Amino acid sequence: MNAQRLTQRLRAGLRGWGGVGAMAVVCALALAFVLLLPRAGASGAGGAADSGGRLAHGLQAAVEKKCTNGKYPQDQSLSPSGGNGSTTNVDAIKTRGRLVVGVDTNSYRWGYLNPNNAKGELEGFDIDLAHRIAGDLLGDPGKVTFKAIPTSRRIDAIKDGEVDMVVRTMTITCQRLDDVAFSAPYFKTGQQVLAPKNSTITGYNNTLAGKRVCSALTSTALDNLKADRGHKIPASTDIGTVVPNQLDCLVKLQLGEVDAIVTDSALAASQAAQDPTVELKGGLFTDEYYGVAMKKTSQDLVRQVNRTLENYIKDGGWADSYRTWLHPTMDLDGKKSTSATPPEAHYQ
Amino acid sequence: MTTPPKSSTAPPDSGVPTIPAVPPQPGKPAPPTPAGPDAVPEAAPPRRTAFAEGVDRLRAAATTEPGRLRIIGALLALLVVGFGAVAAWQMTDRASAADDVLTSSQPLSSDAADIYASLADANTAAASGYLAGPQEKPAMRKRYQDDINTAATKLVTAAANSKAGSESAKTIAELNKLLPTYKGLVETARANNRQGFPVGGAYLRAANETMQQQMLPKAEALYQRENQRLDADYADAKAFPWAAVGLGVAALAALAWAQRRNFLRTNRVLNHGLVTASAASVVVLLWLVVGHTVARAGLNDSYDHGVRSLNVLHDARIASLTARSDENLSLIRRGADTVLVGKNPTDAYAVGYETQIAKLAAKLTRAGSLADDTAGKKPVKDANGFMQAWKDRHGVAQNWNDKGDYQKARDKVIGAGPDPTSVCFDNVDSALRKALVHEQDEFQQAASGGRDALTGLPYGAAVLAVLAAAGAVLGIGRRLSEYR
Prior knowledge:
By secondary structure, chain A is an alpha/beta fold. Chain A is built from eleven helices and 15 strands.
């Protein structure tokens, strides 16, 4: 009897506690709502910040076009005819008897060590140019020492004096102009889309909807893709595939892990040359120029290289090299690519 | 127990007087036991449990000498048989664990190490072959193929020895899936390289990444798991048979007590049965302790000088293989992959080479200190010497490469130039293989010595215990017969 009463009381007590518990749950839910709502708002705000970022990027792109001094980055090199007559840096190279050039040895058709080249010599468009510079400087195009340098070490290699110059598909940008000096532009390029020939993708446009696009880590391509998604290209484009090196994108494309690649048109052409089933799609969607990078203080050397470039373009050496290495993949269906004409030099 | 209370075991008052031959008994000389017969009629009316009745009968029996003797005999026999049974059981366990160490878990652990090593070796051969390109030697191609075959074959063995649904089985299945993927990447790399396309290098990088980041960690996990199994078997085999030894000591003590009691009561020094029982028990106990100690020593030896050395040597071999593939890849990728060292971007494979060589040096030092004889020390010392030469030559090749003399650097690495690093690597590898074979032999000898020390122990213990029990029963029976 006693025990029964006790359990009854306990049950009643529990019921009471149940009420309190329910209230606690309701309170917690309310609190959660209150806490979560601003969070949802924050994510909305984040979206807004994103579009702000896009705007900022648009501005930045404009800045990239013209540097703070109001000039285009590619139009800031030194005229071959100017200068105070001092030739310290050029003389130093002449005394040494060899020109040390930093190059890429992995970019097909640009700077590449072909395993089937019995002499083990590098070949490509950049390599031709380096030989020409050495020829003009030292009287022998063979007097070049090529050094393979990673993309991320290009500027340091120049600053540290490890190389005299870098000829390595290096884009002239305002930011880089703070660290190194560039020659006049020697090649016009820009971002471009690469996809299988039978793909429905026609360029950097709506046809990328729902497609997986590959780009290289810390590349201009990735920056553009991030900025343009939901804007120039559909929001459904999957740009999640990011690889250490642009060539790894071609592996992913061939393995069917991505549908398209965005990279420099020059490098895209180099990739297309390695796989006859892919091609460049649409035109360039940005304007960029490659230049030869040198030490900021080597003004005499910059002028010397610019003279070489003028002659190289004038005497048809440039066109020959282009025809050998780039014409087959860049000029499609008999149409000349915008890159097929050497860019005009505008000195500061 | 439901039998009527009075049976032949309880002749309370008739026993003592009828048998005269008993010498004077100092203890309790035939207690009067008046309570016994009186108690029976009194206890009859309430229903009693069988147990209580049994206790009563025992208590009643304990009051007379033959009854006590019967109890003592039964207890002695039980104790001795129990001792034998526990000894046989515990030693069967240990013997089978020791046998597992030798014939199952160590070979499996060694197989897992082989899978690990042949995968790493295949990756190294693939990178070396790629770098050599048209100059690839048929031997290198064969080595790659053999490695892949070894890995595939040993995976099958490992799968057969793993429980379905276990972690090991899952790992093996994953490795089985990755192996053809890896091979596909390597072949595509080769095909592209033949055409002179640098995308081949990117394929090789993808293959290397698959190997280093997915396959080798899995193979290592498998190896670790097999090692755990080996350790568990070692622990089982080496666990001291406390229960058996404890029971043995108890049995001996009981036998000693029974004999002392016998001596005190009858002034007879030797009871053949009890002496036999004691001797048999002592033999079992000594055999048990000595056999297990010897086995334990052998197993300890096989672990200290075999397994531990084998583990370190396997690690050293993997480090040397990885260093070699990094050395090749650094020349294949030519700076396409960088990692930050401090703030400086540095070639990822150059960094990898330095790390692996340092690891190799550390493991070789350790292996040198673990090796206990000259036959074991020599190959380790050789490997160390070859490694030093490798480091020096690698430095030269690296210097050439840094200066832009790629061709010379490549020739030095692939073995087309004078004093190539390839020879150093091959020498390190063969010295390590030699050391592994030696340590495997050492293990085999020590472990089989240990296992053999337990041979026959379970059966011997069982047979001797039965003998001892028989002796105890007969010995007590001899005394008991004096009461008839």
